[in-house]
Each structure stands twice: as C-alpha cells, then as structure tokens.
Amino acid sequence: QRQLVESGGGLVQAGGSLRLSCAASGRTFYGMSWFRQAPGKEREIAAAISWSGADTYYADSVKGRFTISRDNAKNSMYLQMNSLKPEDTAVYYCAASSRTTYVRKTVPDFDYWGQGTQVTVSS
C-alpha cells in the first residue's frame, strides 16, 4: 500500500495555477516537502514544511509564486502553484520524514516518497 499519493498535476498555460495534494496514510509523517525533477535534471527541492506548519522553506525559483501548506487532521499536504512558468515543468514528488519534525531540504532527509505527478506548463 502506497503511503504517499500525489494528485492535482496536469497541463496548464504559462501564468496559470495548479494545486497539488499529497495524501498520507499508514503512519505519522513529520517534516514534509515537495521535490521536482525535470527531464535530464536532478531532483530538486521546491518547498518544505515542518510538522507544525509554522516553518516553511522555498527554493528561490518558486519563492513568491508557490505556497506549501498541510492539514495534519487530514494527513495531507498541499502546494499551491501560481504564475506558473514553462521552467516549472517537471514531475513533482511528495516526500515525508518519519524521523524529524523540522524543515528538511535534501533527498536523503526523507524516507518516504510518492510516485510523482506530472506538471506541464506550456508557453
């Protein structure tokens, strides 16, 4: 049983918006994040959030356009993406840590991953 399931990806024109969701199940997850991976590139952090939601982190490339949030009562995390650009095109992955409640930003920090959802922004 997959423990992290992303949804909300799709095709959108530049300047448009999408909202990604990550539904978690099976256990308690603490620090969570959204990573993305474009073709031919390494997986990179887009945004991260602490267990309480009080602390967040955004990559410079998405700062001011993306908003990360979570609802622990629903075991869910979200990424609101506005003013999308073609360079935002990537597979977006939900990642979660079972070990730390703090904001974490690198791939080794997370021990659970979703299957990814494709976001394509056309120019």
What does this structure look like?
This protein has 123 residues and is mostly beta strands. Helix content is 0%, strand content 46%. It is built from no helices and eleven strands. Strands 2, 4, 5, 6, 9, 10 and 11 form a seven-stranded mixed beta sheet that branches. A hairpin with a 6-residue loop joins β5 and β6. It is globular, with a radius of gyration of 13 Å. The mean pLDDT is 96.
Average pLDDT confidence is 96
Strand content: over 45%
Radius of gyration: 13 Å
Please describe the biggest sheet, giving its number of strands, its sense, and whether it closes into a barrel: 7 strands, mixed
* Uncertain ranges: none
**Shape field:** globular
Helix content: under 10%
**Ends: how far apart?**
37 Å
The count of helical stretches stands at 0
Helix and strand element order:
EEEEEEEEEEE
Tell how many strands the DSSP assignment holds.
11
- The structural class is mainly beta
